[in-house]
Amino acid sequence: MRILTVHADFIEVEPIKKAIADAEKIESQERKRYDEVLVVFTAVELGDEDVAGSAKALAKEADAVARQVKAKNILLYPLVHLTSKPSSPRIASAVVLKAEEELKKMGYEAAHSPFGWYKAYTLKCKGHPLSELSREFKASGSGTEAGSKEKEEISASLKQEAELKSRFYIMDLEGNLHEIEKFDFKKYPNLKKFAIYETKKVRAYEKEPPHITLMKEQRIIDYEPGSDPGNFRYLPKGKLIKKLLEKRISDICVKTCGAVEVETPIMYDYEHPALKKYLNRFPARQYVVVSDDKRLFLRFAACFGQFLAAHDMVISYKQLPFKMYELTRYSFRREQSGELAGLKRLRAFTMPDMHTFAADIKQAREEFEKQYDIGLSFLKELGLDAEVGFRIQEDFFKENKDWYVRMVNKAGKPILVEMFKERYAYFITKFEFNFVDAMDKASALTTVQIDVENADTYDISYVDKDGDKKRPLILHASLSGSLERDIYALLEKEAMKMKEGKKAMLPLWLSPTQLRLIPVSENQNEFALKILKQFENSAVRVDFDDRNETLGKKIRDAEKEWIPYIAVIGEKEAREGKLSVTIRESGEKKMMSIEEIKKEIETKTAGMPFEVLSLPQELSKRPYL
Between the chain's N and C termini, which has fewer beta carbons within 10 Å? Predict the structure, then answer.
């Protein structure tokens, strides 16, 4: 059985017409409203034929969530679309009705929406971290989420965040704080979307985000049905893009920031005292692994390994600020099924994770601002625009307001500020650069936090100039955010361009094929092969469409693949040595020599990493991936 629970201010349900012949008989098709309600969308599956046992398991799960969110009213809403293996309507109906009886016995105001009907509904989700949860379970009532054999681990920080009382403001370039409802967003539509997303906290998508279609159409990334949802299959083009992003952000952290690069384990002991405390201070859900009698969790960041390593180091004040970096392949977060959304929110991701150990708040602020600048620069390299959000403890804001104003001015536009009186996690301030996608959802890319707790938690210290041991402050930084989200943002941006009638294109340095050679006929194939050889030692990715297709189809296919430079080779081009080149970015067509093409592409991609594409250069030799 599968359920998706939504803690709602209200839901209104209107039966429209029968979906099956044996639909439940109802007295009226009038719209009904349920207030302050836990809505339990329910799919009864094959294997749930034990009606009594399945009903008890369903009631038990609904009760467990209702207790967490303090709901007194429960609506069971049959939703067969939650599963690909539904039970018979007769069994499903019996389970829902029996579960309703069980919930009433427990003291709930319980009801169900009509079974076997197409229904229209209006729902207002409360939007706190526990307002949307998913479960998968059997009649044993083990209460697992998404097939795990362990009960969901919810950190104290997540529970505290659900009860957190914070206020949101818009800060302008002069440092004035405006209540969101009173701010004029006319010039800042994306900031408004970001503010709504953060305050309403509606994370689930109503329909599939467009980047999912694009990642499949471009044969970059696809779902892996043999794995857990939220784990993906990278095809050669996708692997290349990801590899280039990995190289670029690693160069920034190691060469620009001066971090030492390390590698740490992906799983850790739940009962390790420092780790256990940190788990309860980090708002994330974990995968659980059982080995012999030990319970382990898969890391959701590189903090665990880096902090344990820092604990064992002898650090001098002369070495501060000291930075440690790891490109985590992979980090894991057991996101709720209803919130998984392609590359935006997934369960296994690549996180460039850097930690800076600073001597004091002055040094921490300096590093924080430097990393803020680097984050802005990295987004420009990707061609992405983002909205800036700061989360700040109120007292710290008052002490450092001028500093925040300076950073707002670097962004060049107003920002969103969340102010909280009491810390619910380990940081006193953080910033995020949030990309707003085609469906008005926001996603944090670059983020940096100032951590005031974990030096104590992990017993990390440095020796000051007097020989005394002191606790450093720790900056958590992901200067790119997860690399999967970078790809998501790039694709979503292109989806929005396509909607406006513009041509989609990845940044040139990330385009899997940068130049495609298209001969007019087979007579030019030999000349095209000679051109390929002239690019062998260049920083240009070139391929050759040698398929037995018409010229028109070859050009259309290249355009569908967003190829930046398309060079057509006819008899004249082969004779004169200049190619007819179409440049996708500008739409310009011009005659160019091979050296001119090479120089233009290498100039435009200068300073960016280069890797070869692991596909045959001749398209006829490529499997359809």
Answer: C
Asked if residue 350 lies in contact with residue 247, where contact means CB atoms within 8 angstroms, the answer is: no
Task: Give the C-alpha separation, 498 to 512, whole Å.
Answer: 20
Beta bridge partners of 469: 463
- Residue 149: the pLDDT is 39
C-alpha–C-alpha distance, residues 85 and 478, integer Å: 40
DSSP string for residues in 244-313: HHHHHHHHIIIIIS-PEE----SEEETT-HHHHHHHTTS-----EEEETTEEEEE-SSSHHHHHHHHHT-
Q: Which residue has the tokens 């200068």?
A: 606
Q: Are 218 and 586 in contact (CB under 8 A)?
A: no
Q: What confidence tier does 272 reach under pLDDT thresholds 50, 70, 90?
A: confident
Question: Is the Cβ–Cβ distance between 70 and 110 less than 8 Å?
Answer: no
pLDDT tens digits, one per residue of 112-134: 999 999 999 999 998 877 788 88
**Residue ranges of the alpha helices (H) in 165-235?**
189-200, 210-217
Q: Quick one: DSSP state of residue 252?
A: I
Cβ contact 286:279 at 8 Å: yes
Q: Select from 585, 385, 386, 439 the least CA-distant residue to 502.
A: 585
With residue 122 as reference, give the H or E element that holds it: strand 117-125
Give the pLDDT band of residue 164 (cuts 50, 70, 90): low
pLDDT per position as a tens digit, 196-215: 999 887 767 777 899 999 99
Q: Strand, coil or helix: what is 619?
A: helix
What strands, in cross-sheet order, belong to the sheet with 565-569? 542-544, 515-519, 565-569, 578-583, 589-593
From the list 252, 331, 261, the residue with the least C-alpha distance to 298 is: 331
Q: For residue 181, which of 189, 192, 197, 165 has the smallest C-alpha distance?
A: 192
Confirm whether pTM is higher than 0.70. Answer: yes
Two structure tokens written together for 504? 């989609």
Domains of the chain in start order, with CATH, are 2-152 (3.50.80.10), 166-261+311-491 (3.30.930.10), 508-621 (3.40.50.800)
CA–CA separation, 239 and 247 (whole Å): 12
Q: How far apart are CA 237 and CA 512, in angstroms?
A: 6
Instruction: Give the tens place of pLDDT for each residue, 423-468.
Output: 878 899 999 999 999 999 999 999 999 999 999 999 999 999 999 9
Whether the Cβ atoms of residue 163 and residue 126 lie closer than 8 Å to each other: no
Q: Which residues contact 545 (CB under 8 A, 6 or more apart)?
A: 516, 517, 518, 519, 554, 557, 558, 619
| Interstrand relation of 322-332 and 589-593 (parallel, antiparallel or unpaired) | unpaired
Q: Is 560 helix (H, G, I), strand (E, B) or coil?
A: helix
Compute the residue count for the chain. 625
